[in-house]
Specification:
Elements: H1 12-21, E1 24-29, H2 43-59, E2 62-63, H3 85-92, H4 108-128, E3 133-138, H5 143-156, E4 158-159, E5 162-163, E6 167-171, H6 190-199, H7 232-255
Parallel strand pairs: 1-2, 1-3, 3-6
Antiparallel strand pairs: 4-5
Helix pairs in contact: 2-6, 2-7, 4-5, 6-7
């Protein structure tokens, strides 16, 4: 049995021991978003959380509970796309005006800024708990930009005339393995569906809902390879490579912290 790495499930002495062994904290973030009829709407966050757990189990560290909410709901979201909204609302059984522009009662800019502040809050909390490297795992790809913005703000903070000691880093996963998986980084197609099948209970995915024609246009699905070709085996190969490269990056930040301080460092 793998050791427990989920922060909220550990007792204080267990947390301290794990942190002293390897002072890295993973912060998975995602969203609730349409991912075709064959995937659950929580795919992004489920993926990020499970991937963070794999990284912590393999290389050390602990994992905070995932953040499901707070992101901009009117931009960079399948339900916000004017070409998809009507059909998605019909299938979900809600009026289209429920997702009309302005439905979040805050401007997209206000939503973005509030979310970035929330991420900075999470980074500050992680640092206050004694962790030296703070890794945001963005399951929903657009959130990597907000996470990097938060990491930059965190880097610039001063407290009692001292800069923050912890080192932030952000990844989604696909950008780390594009050299080996050219089709990586799709939306609800072969890549994401395979990852979820490998990381979670395969019963969450139902490929039988897909039409027989692999060239058929699927609502809210995009990628170079259709989800029909998704397998847990392919997902597992990708997961193992992501975990390997993440743990290398994290270890380097632990061993060489001076390389990751200062202005303009790679986030």
């Amino acid at each position: 049995m793998n050791r427990e790495v989920r922060y909220e499930r550990l007792r204080p002495t267990q947390i301290r021991q794990a942190r002293e062994d390897f002072p890295v904290l993973y912060l998975p973030i995602g969203t609730i978003e349409w991912h075709g009829l064959h995937n659950p709407v929580g795919l992004d966050t489920l993926k990020a959380h499970a991937l963070a757990i794999r990284c912590a189990e393999t290389g050390g560290g602990l994992v905070f509970p995932p953040l499901w909410f707070g992101e901009n709901r009117e931009e960079a979201l399948i339900e916000a796309n004017l070409g998809n909204r009507k059909d998605i609302c019909q299938i979900m059984g809600i009026p289209e005006e429920n997702l009309a522009p302005g439905y979040m009662r805050r401007s997209p800019h206000q939503q973005n800024m509030a979310y970035i502040e929330l991420l900075v809050h999470m980074l500050n909390q992680g640092q206050s708990l004694g962790f030296e490297v703070l890794v945001i795992v963005a399951g929903h790809y657009p959130l990597i930009d907000h996470a990097r913005a938060a990491a930059s703000l965190f880097q610039q903070q001063r407290w009692n005339n001292r800069r923050n000691a912890a080192i932030p880093w952000v990844f989604t996963g696909y950008e780390l393995v594009k050299d080996r998986f050219p089709a990586a980084g799709d939306h609800a197609a072969w890549w994401e569906t395979s990852l979820l099948m490998a990381l979670e209970d395969e019963t969450l995915v139902d490929l039988s809902t897909l039409p027989a024609d692999q060239n058929a246009v699927l609502l809210g699905v995009g990628g170079n390879r259709p989800p029909h070709q998704a397998t847990s085996e392919a997902g597992e190969q990708a997961v193992q490579l992501i975990v390997e490269r993440v743990t290398e990056q994290v270890r380097d930040r632990i061993d060489n912290p001076s390389y990751y301080r200062g202005h303009g460092v790679k986030l």
